[in-house]
Amino acid sequence: MQMIKYIAVLIIFINCMPIVVYSKSAKIKVHQLSFEGNNAFPDERLERLMLTRNSHFLANSYYYPEVFSDDLDNLIIFYQQNGYLDAKISDYNVNIDSINTSCKIKVFIDEGPLTSVGGIAVFGNNVFGDSILLAKVKLEKNGPFKRNLIQEGQIEILSHYAENGYLDASVKPDIKINTETHTGYVDYVITENPQYSIGNITIEGLNKTKPRVVQRELLFNRGDTIQYSRLLESQKQLYLTGLFQSVFIRPEASRDGIATSKDILIELKENLSGEFNFTVGYGSENRARTRLEINNNNLAGTARKAGIAVQASFLRRAIEASFTEPRLLKTRWRFDINSMFEFVEQPGFDVSRLFSRLTIGRPLSKYTYFNMSFRFEDAKLRHIEVIDTLKNFDPKVRSFTLSISHDSRDNYFDPRRGIFLEWTNEFAGAFLNGNNSFARSKIISKYFYEINNKTIVASAFEIGWIGHLGSFEEIPLSERFYTGGTSSIRGFKYQLVGPLDQNENPIGGKLKVVWNILEIRRALYKLFSGVLFIDAGNVWSKVKDFNISGFRISSGVGLRLGSPIGILRLDYGINIDRRGNEPRSILHFNMGHTF
What we know:
Elements: H1 2-16, E1 29-36, H2 43-47, H3 65-81, E2 88-96, E3 102-110, E4 116-123, H4 130-134, H5 147-163, E5 170-178, E6 183-191, E7 197-204, H6 211-215, H7 228-240, E8 244-253, E9 261-270, E10 274-283, E11 287-299, E12 304-313, E13 316-325, E14 334-346, E15 349-363, E16 368-382, E17 396-407, E18 418-428, E19 438-450, E20 455-468, E21 511-525, E22 528-540, E23 552-563, E24 566-575, E25 585-591
Parallel strand pairs: 1-3, 4-6, 7-9
Antiparallel strand pairs: 2-3, 5-6, 8-9, 10-11, 11-12, 12-13, 13-14, 14-15, 15-16, 16-17, 17-18, 18-19, 19-20, 20-21, 21-22, 22-23, 23-24, 24-25
């Protein structure tokens, strides 16, 4: 009977207990994450190691037990890699609120003593001296015993041997820890093995491309000591030609049986050389547009390119032919020729052009390129509505241009990090048989910084100046600077920032400044992302008219959609300092980023 009473009381107690059910789909937001016992590293540094983080305005974080458990393991690994070999998580608290929507987390850390480096040595090396190899190791005597630096030192020594032809060299770190003195010792044990040179070079996979096209991109020859960096750079150079879907370069055992030689196998898979492209699009300025292209990117297997394109929109119609010689006279100079006829409707006038441009350029370094070009253009201006300008003057431009650019962006179309810089100088004049003379200089810069995998900060700046040369003081309408619209200052209509005549037609000017001060790009949901931006700039009739107070400013928001055909862009720009009959805001639709 007594047992029955105990069971009854237990049942009543259980029934009265509150029942908390944690749904796998429920999201518990991390309201606060803090640490205790951490003296070597601040809370902010430890938090960056975890997926379970403090929630912020732009980024919420949620508590998942399995993820949090992995986070704690990562903390211990981090401490051990930085010399705290006995570090451990002594305890942690996860306090969830009564309605299961948020929690506070506190992690208690026992760092333990710091293990320092007692000594570093190398053994087994005959080809390279101790000082050369130890210089590859960033681990410092008496400094923290960092295991990641031990591994990096192993890789650096191994890479040094591989770069000098010792492909079969091995490097093994022998680690000893004195637990009483908390001191660690590292001995790198090296087995050098033979040095290899390049034997036969075999190219596979060529159906159309001439072997010499491949050979001229290679940075190594038969008999050279094998350098892995040259193999990798040659592989990259071949891929950048655009001729191949895949490129693999690797050393193999010598077919001739030479013990100190390696054959090099180059495996290639060619792209189709012919292309037929047809695209359609729509933008708020050009409205409906279409483009048809026919290209051959590997004429007769020589890597020369030729193409013809026809494009049309409500503002522009054009036909263009192009030819590219990637290696002019077997040098690293590239030669391009473009010929085009186009008709463009601009605010205040129409212009038709027939021009050719010859361009010669070459890379100066990994990210830097130099170009010089010659422009031959005959233009006709029609339906000129701009007041106080020459109406019976059709410019013939013969110009010479020098430009230098630096481009370290990680992606040309959707960059997340990197810098683009370009400086262009153009000189036109009667000495080239043109009918007007001017000098133009333009500087463009773009900067991209990835805050995290969802947020990117970008900025761009452009300044241009044009001035007459000789006795001719008029700059043709078609050569002046204009700004405003979807690709510059987004709170204004196309080309309507700057001097206007009494009918509000843009006159253009000799000085242009456009500063996309800040653009924050943030992923929202799947293929959608949002943008906040602020733009500023103007065009001045003369350089002496420049004044900071003349800057026009706009800001706004935008929406991006990453589609299979490219990035679709919708921007809502607001005119901060509205004047006269200017619209308060304007909606722009286009493809691709603003810059």
